[in-house]
Design goal:
alpha/beta, nine-stranded mixed beta sheet
Length: about 300
């Protein structure tokens, strides 16, 4: 399919993921498409019905109704804890048959609640899981999709040049993969932070890193630590919201979720510091965190 056949689309939530998709599409697809985001509620947006986000060609609409009017497909990309609320607020403004592409990192149960809201309003809900960081691949970032409308969704996503695979015909199948995978991916981030921040404060990180390297020589531990700390510093609060959904997923499965909950706590603590990532090195990032992190009693 060609870019000329891309449908009219809209975004609810225009953060990192939405911006990356739009940049990847380029002006030939993105130009003139609409988005509504919480930042559209600032005083400037209230006085201007629409304003363009110049880096992407997307127009930020002053209200949800304007963004959603006539859209064939809507990408919902808010924070995990606001996904169901976003569906509730947008449902009344959907054109019948609109595809609601829910790319939020939510538990299968939350996805099913959103699906009920969207379907009751005449929309077509699709469970979308974004399976990698959106940079550098942008709109080519791998997606999993699930639900009864995956055929129609795949056609739209392919028209937009996106990389999607069908994971099942039931809402929650895609999100379950994303959530359960995050136990490992974001849990390792939190484990590394707890281990190496403690080692740095104790003044023994060289010996700890040497021991880790000897046990797992295929990992560049200082480089991995720098990367993991950067992700937590820049995106910790969003990742904490996702990990709370991971904890909910485990509870839905009847399993303990203490590790996922502890991971959410570490992500939130570091994200709340609002520190710049700085240079790409573990010691500098660790020192910045340790200088700012409140002491525990």
């Amino acid at each position: 399919m060609t870019h000329a056949r891309a449908p009219k689309i809209a975004f609810i939530g225009f953060g990192e993921a939405a911006e990356a998709f739009a940049k990847g599409w380029g002006q030939d697809i993105a130009g003139g498409q609409l988005a509504w985001d919480a930042k559209c509620s600032d005083p400037e947006a209230r006085h201007l019905p629409q304003r363009r986000a110049d880096a992407t060609g997307i127009v930020l609409a002053g209200d949800r109704a304007a963004a959603l009017e006539g859209a064939a497909a809507v990408f919902c990309l808010v924070t995990a804890d606001r996904a169901v609320e976003a569906a509730e607020q947008a449902a009344a403004h959907l054109t019948p048959g609109t595809l609601w592409l829910d790319g939020n990192s939510c538990s299968p149960g939350a996805k099913r609640r959103s699906a009920q809201i969207i379907e009751a309003a005449g929309g077509r809900y699709v469970d979308v899981a974004i399976m990698a960081p959106v940079y550098p691949k942008m709109h080519r970032t791998p997606l999993l999709i699930a639900g009864p409308h995956v055929g129609a969704a795949l056609e739209v996503l392919e028209a937009l040049g996106m990389e999607a695979q069908i994971s099942g015909d039931s809402v929650g199948e895609a999100s379950a993969i994303k959530m359960i995978r995050s136990v490992m991916i974001k849990g390792m981030e939190a484990l590394m932070a707890e281990c190496l921040l403690a080692a740095r404060r104790a003044g023994i990180e060289g010996r700890v890193l040497a021991s880790l390297q000897a046990s797992n020589p295929n990992i560049d531990w200082p480089s991995q630590a720098a990367y993991n700390l950067e992700r937590m510093m820049m995106h910790g609060r969003r990742r904490a919201a996702e990990m709370r959904e991971v904890a909910a997923t485990l509870a839905e499965l009847g399993l303990p979720n203490a590790l996922a909950s502890a991971t959410a706590d570490w992500q939130q603590r570091i994200g709340n510091l609002e520190l710049p990532a700085g240079d790409d090195d573990y010691p500098g990032r660790a020192d910045a965190i340790l200088r700012t992190l409140p002491a525990q009693r």
